[in-house]
Amino acid sequence: MMKELPKIYDPQKTEGRIYELWEKSGFFNPDKISSQKTYCNILPPPNANGELHLGHASGYTVMDIFGRYARMKGKKTLLLPGKDHAGIQTQVVYEKKIKDERNITCNDLGREKFYQEVFDFCRDRSNYMRAQEKKIGISADWSREKFTLDPKVLKIALETFVKMYEDGLVYKGNRIINWCPRCATALSDIEVIHKEIEGKLFFIKYPIKNSKEYVTVATTRPETMLGDTAVAVNPKDERYKNLIGKIVTLPLQNREIPIIADRHVEIQFGTGAVKITPAHDPLDWQIGKDHGLSEIQVINGKAEITNLGGKYQGQSVLEARENILKDLSKIGLLEKEEKSSINKLICERCKTAIEPLISEQWFINVDAKKYSLKKAALKSIQTGKIKIYPENFKKILIHWYENLNDWCISRQIWWGPRFPAWYKNEKIHVGIEKPKGKGWIQDTNTFDTWFTSSQWPYTTLGYPKEKDTKTFYPTDIMITGRDLLFFWAARMIMMGLYRTKKVPFKNLYFTGLIRDKEGNKMSKSRGNGIDPLAMIEKFGADALRLSSIIDTAPGQDSRLYEQKIESFRNYVNKLWNISRYCFFSSDKFSLREKLASHDFKIPADRWIVDNLDKLIQETNRLFDNKQISLAADKIKKFTWNIFADWYVEIHKIEKNDKILGYVLDKILKLSHPFTPFVTEEIFQLANSKNKKMLMLSHWPSISKNKTGKNVSEGKFETILEAIIQIRNIRSIYKIDSKKKLNLTIQSQDQAFFNENRSIFQKLARVDNVSIVKKIKRPRNSAEISFRGIKMHIHLENVIDVAKEQERLQKEILNAENYLDSIEKKLANKEFINRAPQEIIQREKNNFIKTKEKLCELKNYFENIAS
Ligand SMILES: [Zn+2]
Question: For residue 1, what pLDDT band results from cuts at 50, 70 and 90?
Fold first, then answer.
């Protein structure tokens, strides 16, 4: 006999125990599953410097749902977890920590000590985060867990760099880059945030040589003028045609610079003439290259004016700006200032203003002669080698690749792997090991964190030698937040194709961002975030899992709030209570895997199993299309609205424990990927004798083929509809629920009604039913027609006819008056002309609704009028 189910499901007492059961079984490790079919999802590594937040929790939920589904489908399933060292971000976090706690900077520690401390910090955080990740129920193989700085993982990533160097895909060069003065490092284009702010546009007059005229340029950054090497106009701009080729004197610096023509200059911006500072603006840098202009660096890495900035040397950028404007004003060269919205660049990590600077950095040439990273990636997307969910992200990705510039991969921070490049005098050696002989010094740069994480799908699998590569690469799916589309997803495709000649994953699935109830982004400053661990504590992991995926779609933002989670806790409880009913239904109740034809006793049995078959087919189709939100919703509706609301009620009248046990077994299996804890707990209680686990059960297949019988073809639904109609009549005429009804049914299939008579009578609370071939309408009865059936409900003895007539008459009058008033409103020209469109539409809708209601009311009145 099975164990009893406690009255109330307690996730707090259950989840830890169930997770331990799974973990101890060893089946998170695919090596224990013998199958030719495999499934692999390399999990995105969260940054090893924080804790589990809602984004991780919901992402893990999606990954785990697909993973559990694959495992139940009999696949050798690997969900490989890991952590990212997260270069700049961790450096910023740790620098703040030592500043707050010990009032020191990284320089006080020195490079080696700092690195070791951050490494230990990350290891600590990783242990802590792992414990949190388990709480969400992720069925990952912890024995394979990786860290981006694990020697084996890192070596593979560095080998890629060496190969790229040999293939001519990386170079060290002077280019304009985004420099964060606070982090004191270069940043790639996508690590910079563009922020629209209220600023000023300054109009400065540059005197034209040998003339009393000026050319006025407009700029948002007057301090950079110290480094100007030209003034540029658009060649099509008629206003400046005869100025092209002339010389102007750069104010304050007294340097002579030319007026040049370049098609990149926007005619509409400011005066149409702009200053060109190749050393401090990316577009100017490009123009400077095209025109052979010199680059004069007047701002340094600390955002201060250099010795080339004349008397402003040593001033901060902002000080210099003030002083320059003052000085220009004094000599009458500041024409005017205008308010203007400007596009400010700030550091993604620390929000400091970016200084574009020319500096020597390592770059990846994304479109090299020998191999074009971007063209290879484009091809894989265009030819559908990687399927993208949602599909519209494909276009965005293609556009991004098409406009991709060289990728700056060196950072001047300490936290991260150093470049495997060694220098001795003029010589350079690129290789994993330090060259033999004395005097070799290693490059001090560290890698952009995305350089290592973009290789995650194959470094984690031990490419190329380890067995896992052969078994699991290319992986099946990558699931990641839409905010990482460019940072990570796009780069993984490029790096995977280059290094392994294969796509890193066959499917790329994006999750959206989670917002609060009002649709706002969750943030610390707003204080509207939800702590997933607190929610698990309060409502259980299953409720959090369901609430974070139902009503979502790939790539689209969704809303999550406490009441939503609570409502799914109620569903989890419902599932528990249904199971409890089943368990108590008889001593011999058991979950049943299979059915035989003779297990079907009544039409309702066939009906519920048919519906279950439909659900299984639909769920499979939805899983194939990666529509797990819809799948979860369908399973939930079947469980609650079909199984619990109908079949369980029917079972109370005509017991068939075999069907009950069969359907519950399938519900548990279908639900398991979504709500693994509660379903496993129920399954364990039902299988206390053997050591089976729901996690390893076979995914349900449909019963039809095995039991061979015809399907009920919706026949039984006629009975259910009759019951619904009768319940409806009860509510219309406000019939006391204790009163039993009498009715006459006209149907050509009397036998079928008779077969279901007891169920029908009990669920509809009907006393006498006469089933006839042809009926005559009795007095005071409600007539209902549906599916070729006519039904008369006798009302004479159950309601006070006169009183009910009076009530209905009143309601009819009210409706007619209301209809009248709307009609008048809509005929009023003044109202039509003045009222907003949506109000007019609302009135029109009201009109239609009221008219329908009036029609019904009249019908009800008619029923009892004679
Ligand atoms: Zn920064």
Answer: very low
Give the per-residue pLDDT at 748: 80
The answer to whether the CB of 504 falls within 8 A of the CB of 490 is no
DSSP 3: P
- pLDDT digits 0-9 by tens, 435-467: 998 999 999 999 999 999 999 999 999 999 999
Mean pLDDT of 750-770: 88
Mapping DSSP to helix (H, G, I), strand (E, B) and coil, where does residue 770 land?
Answer: strand
Cα(185) to centroid(ligand 1), Å: 8
* 200 Cα to the center of ligand 1, angstroms: 24
If you measure from the C-alpha of residue 177 to the centroid of ligand 1, how many angstroms do you get, rounded to a whole number? 14
Q: Give CA–CA dist 461/144, Å, rounded.
A: 9
d(Cα 287, Cα 567) in Å, to the nearest integer? 60
Contact residues for 587 (Cβ-Cβ < 8 A; gap 6+): 1
**More confident position, 315 or 713:** 315
Taking ligand 1, which is a single-atom ion, which protein residues have CB atoms under 5 Å away?
180, 182-183, 347, 349-350, 352
Averaged pLDDT, 338-362: 89
SS3 of 62-112? HHHHHHHHHHHCCCEEEEECEEECCHHHHHHHHHHHHHHHHCCCHHHHCHH
DSSP 463-525: TTTSHHHHHH-SEEEEEEEGGGIIIIIIHHHHHHHHHHSS-SEEEEEEE--EE-TTSPBP-TT
Pairwise CA distance, residues 464 & 160, whole Å = 12
Question: Rounded to an integer, what distance in angstroms lies between the CA atom of residue 632 and that of residue 359?
Answer: 53
Q: Tell me, in angstroms, the distance from the centre of ligand 1 to residue 410's CA.
A: 15
Distance 458 CA to ligand 1 centre (A): 30
Q: What is the pLDDT of residues 675-709, one digit of tens each?
A: 999 999 999 998 877 789 999 999 999 886 545 45
* CA 614 to ligand 1 centroid distance, Å: 55
List CB contacts of 150: < 8 A, sequence separation 6 or more. Answer: none
Specify the pairing of strand 230-233 against strand 255-261: parallel
How far is 606 from 651, CA to CA, in rounded Å?
13
For ligand 1, the distance from its centroid to the CA atom of residue 821, given in whole angstroms, is 65
Residue type at position 610: D
Q: Which helix (H) or strand (E) holds 401?
A: helix 393-402
Which single residue is written with the structure tokens 């050591």?
691
Torsion sign (Cα): 293, 169, 376, 282: negative
Name which residue leads in pLDDT, 756 or 619: 619
Question: pLDDT tens-digit profile of 387-407?
Answer: 999 999 999 999 999 989 889
Q: What is the pLDDT of residues 655-672, one digit of tens each?
A: 999 999 999 999 999 999
Question: Which of 775, 766, 767 has the alpha carbon at shortest distance from 748?
Answer: 775
